[in-house]
Amino acid sequence: MMRLGLLCGGVVLVADQASKYWILNGLDLPALGSIALLPVLNFTMVWNHGVTFGMFNGLGRTGPLLLTLVAVVVVALLLAWMRRARTRLVAGALGAIAGGAIGNVIDRLRFGAVVDFIHAHVFGWSWYVFNVADAAIVCGVGVLLLDSLLDRRAAATDAPVPDRR
């Protein structure tokens, strides 16, 4: 299971860093600001100094270092969990989360902020600008939650029915 998790994490990390390299150097989105791709999707350049949804954005100069340390601890815990994963689905989800976290740590160490550029919006509703790493983290967490719910339901249906005589 560990190999699969590491493979998923590696794929996410490479996709994340390659997309950010292209956004910064190929497309030069910082100079362009925003590009409409579809009626519901733009590439919009945002330097995120916080974490998900810009939380903890006001931590000052120590922010990137503090957030990096927290992310390193989280990745270590994810790797320990991955080693004990019982299913390929869980191992892959943990790998996706770890790969995304590492991708965002690389940005914080290189730039002092995370490169965000995917902006979804529809009918006046606008989602926060995010990146490939963020999407992998959210999908990985969603898979873990779904797996946990399905596992509990399966355990509940396998439980013996009490005798009510």
Automatic annotation (TrEMBL):
Pfam families cross-referenced by the UniProt entry:
Peptidase_A8
Q: Name one GO molecular function term.
A: aspartic-type endopeptidase activity
Its subcellular locations are: Cell membrane
The record's similarity note reads: Belongs to the peptidase A8 family.
Q: What is the lineage of its organism?
A: Bacteria, Pseudomonadati, Pseudomonadota, Alphaproteobacteria, Acetobacterales
Q: Please list every transmembrane segment annotated in the UniProt record, as residue ranges.
A: 65-82, 89-106, 126-146
* Its job: This protein specifically catalyzes the removal of signal peptides from prolipoproteins.
Has the keyword ATP-binding been applied to this entry?
Answer: no
Known EC number = 3.4.23.36
Describe its membrane topology: Multi-pass membrane protein
Could you tell me what this protein is called? Lipoprotein signal peptidase
Q: What class of enzyme is it?
A: hydrolase
Q: Which domain of life is it from?
A: Bacteria
Keyword terms of this UniProt record: Aspartyl protease, Cell membrane, Hydrolase, Membrane, Protease, Transmembrane, Transmembrane helix
